[in-house]
Specification:
With about 240 residues, the protein is α+β, with helices and mostly antiparallel strands. The chain has helices at about 1-35, 35-40, 45-50, 55, 115-125, 165-180, 185-215, 220-225; strands spanning about 60, 65-70, 80-90, 95-105, 105-115, 130-135, 140-145, 145-150, 165, 230-235, 240-245.
Length: about 240
């Protein structure tokens, strides 16, 4: 049992190191925004901001970053800190989009959008407010002083204005209950069935082969001459039997 205890201890240690590394990466994000965010933005300006004039795209820059929060996926969700950071993309003083980034496994992910509404909220974010991502509805909300309201433009599809957080959770539960579940294409849905059928057929074939091999004659048995059969023939009135081979 010692080796099992040591293995568990090592797993816990590695898990703790991974969590500590992720936390450190999240804390280092503001430095990345200062030194590299604008260079990273340059790779997205042509595709993410088609409505911005080409001459103005070179003037775009990344504003002050904010750390995001998110809702947990529990039936009664909680708001927890997240390892993602987001900042407004500005043209002079006007918000035109957002840049979200995080590190995972040593690789950096950058996501740039032209969500003007979300950019404006991040730019004007107050001290007690936070932007919260909902992983089930896949939208951003603004939370502060116990009230929640849409932050991203798509969040307006679920919430029209500002409501108490407790009321929002009730509304959210109803929305998730009515939200259609993602459908699986027919060919993907039938794939496990076909795999199961193939496995059963292969198993039956293997069983048949094993039974045939166990009951089939060996090569020696096939080449061994069969014993001669002697037939005695008696004729009426004959006292001596004749043997036919």
């Amino acid at each position: 049992m010692r080796w099992l205890t040591r293995l568990l201890a090592l797993a816990l240690l590695l898990s703790g190191l991974g969590t500590a590394a992720a936390a450190k990466d999240a804390e280092d994000e503001p430095a990345w925004f200062l030194s590299e965010a604008n260079d990273a933005l340059g790779a997205y300006v042509d595709t993410a901001f088609p409505d911005v004039k080409p001459a103005d795209r070179e003037k775009l820059f990344v504003g002050r970053p904010e750390r995001l929060a998110r809702l947990t996926k529990e039936p009664a969700p909680r708001v927890i800190s997240w390892d993602r950071w987001i900042a407004p993309v500005l043209l002079e003083d006007d918000p035109v989009g957002t840049l979200l980034t995080y590190r995972e496994g040593g690789d950096r992910t950058v996501d740039v959008t032209d969500d003007v509404q979300l950019a404006g909220i991040i730019e004007d974010l107050g001290g007690s407010e936070q932007v919260v991502y909902d992983p089930l509805l896949e939208v951003f909300f603004l939370l502060g002083d116990g009230l929640i309201s849409p932050a991203s433009a798509s969040a307006g599809d679920y919430l029209a204005g500002e409501v108490p957080f407790a009321n929002f959770l009730e509304l959210r539960a109803e929305l998730l209950a009515d939200k259609p579940k993602p459908t699986v294409p027919a060919d993907e849905a039938s794939a496990p069935v076909w795999i199961a059928v193939l496995v059963i057929v292969a198993a039956l074939l293997a069983l048949i082969i094993v039974i045939w091999l166990r009951h089939s004659p060996t090569p020696e048995e096939r080449t061994e001459p069969r014993p001669a059969r002697h037939v005695r023939i008696y004729r009426r009135g004959d006292t001596h039997a004749r043997t036919r081979h």
